[in-house]
Structure formats: structure tokens, C-alpha cells
Amino acid sequence: MNIQWYPGHMTKARRAMEEDIKRVDLVIEVTDARIPYSSRNPDIDQMGKNKARLILLNKADLADEVWNEAWTGWFKGQGYQVVKINSRTGAGLKQIQAAVQEACREKLERDRKRGIQNRPIRAMVAGIPNVGKSTFINAFAGKACAKTGNKPGVTKGNQWIRLNKNLELLDTPGILWPRFDDQEVGKRLAFIGSINDEILNREELALEFIGFMMRQYPEALRERYGEPEAAEKENEQEEMPGLNRYEKELAVLQQIARVRGCLAKGNQYDLSRAANLFLDDYRSGRLGRMTLEFPPETGAKQKTEKKQAAGKEQA
User: Fold this and answer.
1) Is 126:133 a contact under the CB 8 Å cutoff?
2) Domain 183-314 has CATH 1.10.1580.10
3) What pTM, to 2 d.p., does this model score?
4) Most buried pick, 73, 113, 141, 244, via CB within 10 A?
5) Is domain 8-171 classified as CATH 3.40.50.1170?
6) Structural domain boundaries of the chain?
């Protein structure tokens, strides 16, 4: 797969952020805990390099807890303040105010020495599409301040939100960067729904994700859909031309079609519908907690040990 998505409105949004970031003290970057590295826009790093930084690992309930802890430790080692949160339930939100104060400690100390009191911290909330920035803001504010939606591109413009006398937030649209040099990053973003599904081959995306699950979380596939039969190749050429390399994955997708009743005319498998249902099962958490990438310094042995620990914890 070759995934690239950078619609024109993102260029405009990036320029607005470059202007607004001059007026903030802190950049709060919302990431998806399932792909904490791939869901970070390197342009935001560049724009916010002289600002205090706080990273929120949102949707932490959808990622392996053992890897949530590993990523938290890794980011802290890079000098960031980090908080794991679930914006929908409010988990972790109470820790944010303290993390904001710690991230801006030097700024607050400078203000104190200058005799400046009660000046609120101004924070930009930034991130890629569909990581839950607006949901976070609404949950943190305790009211509906920002428009939300279960697809990328809901927030169209920047808006200031005063939370209290100590903190003001600037909500910004989700922006990607112009080109994914690493297509694995593009795939991970597509898996979690941060790429517009309409530009993707959903069947191929589903097969790619099935392949990942077969390697990392095979038990989750079996639990949800049962053991697959051999792929029925007589349908493959007609329905999925050019995808013959996915033989094992195709067998699983056909099993998903069987289990979910995805049949078309002539009792043929409706693989398009099965792919959509499968990806929706993953994105909504019905397949269980999964982390799709691991901290850069994590070796193969550590990955195995952490994966085993995560399995015991979930059991």
C-alpha cells in the first residue's frame, strides 16, 4: 500500500498554528496510545521546540497497559511531561493540571520574579486527525466547547477556550505532514482511522491489519472470529485482484465474512463489508487492547517479556 493524505485545508491550518504558537506558553500534544510515535506530527515538534511540552496518551484504554507504561517512561526520558488519559471516561484528566504546572514551572518562576501574578498559562492543543483533541477539551472543561466526531477533519479552525483563571486552551485542527517517508507510519495511521477511509483500499488495509494481528495478537483473532478455514481461491481473482500474496490473511477475512454474515449474491463473500466490520471492531476496542508499535530502544527480548506480561495482566 502507498498511503499519502494531505488535503489543502491542512496547509492553511499549519500556517495558522505557526502564528498562534508564538502566543502560547505550552504545547499539549494529544497522541493515540496505540501508536504513540506514529501519531506525533514532526512539524509540531519543530513548531514547538522552544515551548514547554506535555504529551497526552489518549485512548489509553485501547492500548496494552504494559506498553502504556513503557511509552510513558520513554517520553519522560526524552524530557516531556506525559499523562495517560481516556477522554471519553475522564480517566487521567485530574493529573493534567499538575502536569501543566510542572511543564511550565520555569515560566511560572520567571513570572513570579517579575512580579507577574495570576497570568493564565496559554496552551495550544495540537495533534493529528482523529486522536480525540476536541473530546479531550470538552471532557477537561466539563462542557461542550469543541465540536467532535468519529472521523478526521471535524475541527476546521482555531478557537480559544478559557478553562479557569489559570489555564486557557487553543483548540486546533488535526494536521498531518505532507509526506510519509515511512509507509509503516502511514499504515498505522490508517489502521486507527486518522486517514480518510474514502481514499483507502479497505480490503487491503484489513488484510494488512489481519497480518499484524496474526503476528502479535493471534489469540484476539481466534477469540472473536474462530479458526479460519483455507482460503477459497476461486473467489480471490475475481474479488481481490493483485492481492494473492495475502493467502493466510484472506482465509481470516473470509472467516470474518462467515461469522458476521457478510454474503453477497450467489453466496459469495462480501469481503468489502467484512473488511469494514473488522476495522470497526478494532477501532472501537471490540478486539481487545492492542499496541501497534513499541518504544525505539525496546529490544526483541523485552518486547516478548512485555507482551507476556500484558497477556497475564489481561487474563
Assistant:
1) yes
2) yes
3) 0.85
4) 141
5) no
6) 8-171, 183-314
Residue 210 corresponds to which cell in the numbers above? Answer: 489481519
Given a contact cutoff of 8 angstroms between Cβ atoms, the answer to whether 240 and 247 are in contact is no
Q: At residue 155, what is the residue type?
A: T
Separation CA 130–CA 208 (nearest Å): 21
For 220-277, the pLDDT digits (tens) are: 999 999 988 776 765 444 455 555 678 899 999 999 999 999 998 888 999 999 999 9
Identify residue 110 by its one-letter amino acid code.
R
> Residue 206 is placed in which grid cell?
484489513
CB-based contacts of 156-163 (< 8 A; 24+ apart in sequence): 156/9, 157/13, 157/16, 158/13, 158/16, 158/17, 158/20, 161/137, 162/120
Residues 89-102 have pLDDT tens digits of 999 999 999 999 99
Rounded to 5 degrees, φ, ψ at 25 are: -95, -25
What does the pLDDT look like over 173-195, one tens digit per residue? 899 998 898 999 999 999 999 99
Neighbours of 203 (CB within 10 A): 21
User: 199 exposed, middle or buried (CB, 10 Å; 0-12, 13-18, 19+)?
Assistant: exposed
